[in-house]
Amino acid sequence: MEFGVARDAGCLTQRGRMGEQPAQQRYKIPRSVLVVIHTPELRVLMMERAKWPDFWQSVTGSVDHEDEPLLETAAREVREETGIDVRRHRLIDWGIENYFEIFRRHQSRFAPGVTHNLEHVFGLTVPEGTPVTLDPSEHLRCEWLPWREAAERTISWSNRDAILLLPEKLGIAP
After folding, report:
1. What integer pLDDT is reported at residue 2 of this predicted model?
2. How far is CA 147 from CA 69, 78, 126, in A?
3. What is the model's pLDDT at position 26?
4. Beta strands 43-49; 59-62: pairing state
5. What's the CATH code of the domain at 107?
6. CA dist., res. 112 & res. 135, Å (int)
7. Is residue 24 part of a domain?
8. Range of the domain at 84
9. Does 80 map to a domain?
10. Domain count of the chain?
């Protein structure tokens, strides 16, 4: 596969899709993960959504099937969205779940009548300089930001709250 350098240092953009699309459309399951990827120095990876410019977020994604373990969902989503292999790093289940209304612009991805999602939060510690390869169908660019700046960048309350918990989760005084 070919890679091209994105506008931001440390982030590559892959040309083409990382995974295959299902033959027929199926509804998303309203259970997902949020993975805050960060360095020990509290720099947080934030990515700008391709289909929603100026919407910055951490890694997110739904379970593929009802019995998919959330840890597997987190590992898969991190790999698909960033190219990072969680087996080389420290993925921690933060034991936090958020129940929220699905953004109206995304409700068509879910079965009729589904309006809310249950999200499980994880943290992934990676070394400074960890390369990131974005899927251009999902994200336009990425930036490594200081944790407070990353929290301010996102409009998602659950993502913001998770980022603000980062020092506590790592046992570091802010």
Report:
1. 35
2. 28, 19, 14
3. 86
4. unpaired
5. 3.90.79.10
6. 28
7. no
8. 3-16+29-170
9. yes
10. 1
Q: What is the pLDDT along the chain (174 residues), one digit of tens a residue?
A: 333 334 455 666 554 444 444 445 688 877 889 999 999 999 999 999 998 889 999 999 988 998 999 999 999 999 999 999 999 999 999 999 999 877 787 778 877 888 887 899 999 999 999 999 999 999 999 999 999 999 999 999 999 999 999 999 999 877
In terms of phi and psi (left: phi > 0; alpha: psi -120 to 50; beta: otherwise), the region of 42 is: left
Give the type of residue at 173: A
The answer to the question of residue 151 being in a domain is yes
Q: Is there a domain that residue 45 lies in?
A: yes
Model pLDDT, residue 92: 96
Label each residue of the chain as H, E or C: CCEEECCCCCEEEECCCCCCCCCCCCCECCEEEEEEEECCCCEEEEEEECCCCCCEECEEEECCCCCCCHHHHHHHHHHHHHCCCHHHCEEEEEEEEEEEECCHHHHHHECCCCCEEEEEEEEEECCCCCCEEECCCCEEEEEEEEHHHHHHHCCCHHHHHHHHCHHHHHCCCC
Conformational region of residue 116, where left means phi above 0, alpha means psi within -120 to 50, and beta covers everything else? beta
Q: Residue 151's closest CA among 173, 166, 134?
A: 166
